[in-house]
Design a protein that fits this description.
It contains ten helices and 21 strands. It is of the alpha+beta class and 470 residues long. It has a 15-stranded antiparallel β-sheet that branches. It has a two-stranded antiparallel ribbon with strand order 1-2. Strands 3-4 form a two-stranded parallel sheet. β1 and β2 form a beta hairpin. α3 packs antiparallel against α4 and α9 packs antiparallel against α10. It is globular and about 65 Å long. The chain starts with 40 loop residues before the first strand and ends in a 16-residue tail after the last strand.
Length: 470
């Protein structure tokens, strides 16, 4: 399934989760086993082999202009703006959230460590890895319909996951995941606030993410960085993450502060992440550095400061003057900046915490999906009979887009949106309130902030009172 990752510390292996076969974009041969899209091969070890390609390649966006839609939306909140389906990717936002679980081995690693510092290091790497799948993913996921759900059980990776769209205005997605070995709980609610700023679209994250390590009786909370897509009008689209992410261990008082750096002058800081872990007395225990698109390392503070001083002395000797014109054009340069491909400067003695997974060879023709993302909308044989009728896999617009039927997908998207509007008007007419099915409003038990909490019972599979949304 593509979960192979390098770890130079030598104390962990991801159980050899390799991609068994190369990608094949022929829609008539999307499974080399000869099985249809709904069937999944069982490997010799008894684990399901998930698909390695989509049924049809990505639809070209070159003939479409987003400017005609967005020019009236500068500075406005974009959740109420209807976008043509060509700018989407064939996944719901609920499925995009599930991609947090792609690097679940880091949670397993955190559970296995006896040292709280090493647990925090693994959790910090997991928080960074959660946004790594967004690299080069410039397609927009489908807005979930109110009441839409998504479930995923991966016995090979040791977790199950359930999410629900609990609010439409504002759009709020709630999720809950647990280890099949009862070793962790991962939950939260996401409310991305989108704004258009002329040349870029910014997604400001709202909502708390919580990870509980049950064996250690620890809970960690954080909020994701801000995501920004540049050059939405003209030029090559590129994406950056920026902002400060604070991960708090509510049991020990330890805190990890990660600074996702903005692009800066001439793209020097593009994709860079720097931060540190401190104890409850604010003593720095280690420094973390790397790129969210590449890898993450850690070292002790003394080694890091010594290296930085040496680097600064060397750079001052080679320093060139920067003209006023260069400084004046910094903002324009940043907006047009292509992604630079330089690697992270390794500091001797550092320990590798995480490295991004290799993507399928033809990922660029499949919306830049990772191997994990390719499998998310897979509808296996017999699954339709046990899924909730609100599951994303059953959405006809997403399914048709995935199969390359763009005209049908666009019509289905309009039909579903109109059905949702009609249902909302009917509820308003009868003065009936919408009731969520699997989550309820409450307070985060560790931060006290408003949150959506899992009510339980989904996997009992009593779906008799689920709404008809498709």
């Amino acid at each position: 399934t593509g979960f192979d990752s390098d770890n130079s510390s030598g104390d962990f292996s991801e159980a050899n989760h390799k991609v068994p076969e190369m990608l094949d974009l022929d829609p008539h041969q999307s499974n080399r086993t000869g099985k249809h899209n709904g069937e999944t091969e069982i490997q010799e070890n008894g684990i399901k082999r998930h698909r390695t390609s989509l049924p049809a390649p990505m639809f070209s966006r070159s003939d479409f202009s987003v400017w005609s839609i967005l020019k009236k939306c500068i500075g406005l909140e974009l959740s109420k703006i209807t976008m043509p389906i060509v700018f989407n990717e064939p996944l719901s936002f609920l499925q995009r959230i599930t991609e947090y679980m792609e690097h679940i081995y880091l949670i397993n690693k955190a559970c296995s460590h006896a040292d709280p510092l090493e647990r925090m290091q693994a959790v910090a790497a997991f928080a960074v890895s959660a946004v790594a799948s967004q690299w080069e993913r410039t397609g927009k996921p489908f807005n979930p319909l109110l009441g839409e759900t998504y479930e995923l059980t991966r016995e090979d990776l040791g977790f199950r996951f359930i999410s629900e769209q609990v609010s439409h205005h504002p759009p709020i997605s709630a999720f809950y995941s647990e280890g099949l070995n009862k070793d962790f709980i991962f939950h939260g609610s996401i409310y991305p606030k989108l704004k258009f700023w002329g040349k870029s679209i910014e997604a400001e994250p709202r909502g708390t993410i919580t990870l509980e390590l049950l064996k250690h009786n620890e809970a960690y909370t954080w909020t994701n960085p801000t995501c920004c897509v540049h050059n939405v009008i003209i030029g090559k689209l590129w994406l950056e993450q920026y902002g400060v992410v604070e991960i708090v261990n509510h049991s020990t008082g330890d805190k990890c502060v990660l600074n996702f750096k903005p692009c800066g002058l001439f793209g020097k800081e593009l994709h860079r992440v720097e931060g540190y872990i401190q104890d409850k007395h604010r003593k720095k225990l280690c420094v973390i550095y790397g790129k969210w698109t590449e890898c993450l390392w850690c070292t002790d503070p003394t080694t890091y400061e010594t290296y930085k001083k040496s680097e600064k002395r060397g750079s001052e000797q080679k320093k060139k003057s920067v003209s006023e014109e260069d400084i004046k054009s910094e903002n324009d340069e940043a907006d047009d900046m292509p992604e630079v491909q330089d690697t992270v400067q390794f500091i001797p003695g550092s320990k590798l915490l995480w490295r991004i997974n290799c993507r399928p060879p033809n990922s660029s023709q499949m919306y830049n999906f990772t191997s994990f993302a390719v499998s998310l909308n897979e509808l296996e044989k017999g699954m339709e009979a046990i899924l909730a009728p609100t599951d994303c896999r059953l959405r006809p617009d997403i399914r048709n887009m995935e199969n390359g039927n763009m005209d049908v997908a666009s019509k289905e998207k309009e039909r579903l949106e109109e059905k949702q509007r009609a249902a909302r008007k009917e509820r308003a007419k009868d003065e009936v309130e919408w009731h969520t099915r699997w989550f309820h409003q409450g307070s985060n038990p560790y931060t006290g902030t408003p949150d959506w909490l899992y009510s339980g019972g989904y996997f009992d599979r009593n779906f008799s009172d689920c709404p008809d949304i498709y």
